[in-house]
Amino acid sequence: MRLVCDPVYGEVDLTASAEELNRLADAVAEGKGLLGSTPSPDADALAGIEVKGTAGPGVLVHLDSERQFLVISGDSAGRAVLADNLRGMASAEDGGHLHIDYFPGHFYLAEGSLPLVVNSPHGGMPTR
Questions:
Q1: Distance from the Cα of residue 104 to its chain's centroid
Q2: I need a labelling partner for 5 at 20 to 30 A (CA). Which of 54, 61, 99, 100 fits?
Q3: What is the pTM of this model?
Q4: What digits encode the pLDDT tens for the residues 85-101?
Q5: Can you tell me the distance from the alpha carbon of 116 to that of 102, in angstroms, rounded to the nearest whole number?
């Protein structure tokens, strides 16, 4: 898994294998987990992802800048939707990426969530 945080826009870019995305989805659904990322010389690379179950409301995606970890926390209903989205990207066979961005009235993301781009294990743009 590779995690890079854009220092200007605060967007986090996640590139992972299907197996890694499914492991992340399982942790998100369960509400607990700690997943490391591949070490990178990139100064903006993150060390991993921590998942925590909380009362919510919704899911908050934020950065623990001291530890350089992306933290995903939130209620079980919101985490279930995010986990399904991650599994969908893991199983997508034609490439592409998924933008997970908060906007006012978002049905499962909490205000203040960092934008997250999840890349398909097959890379690139969809072929269909």
A1: 19
A2: 54
A3: 0.91
A4: 999 999 988 878 999 99
A5: 9
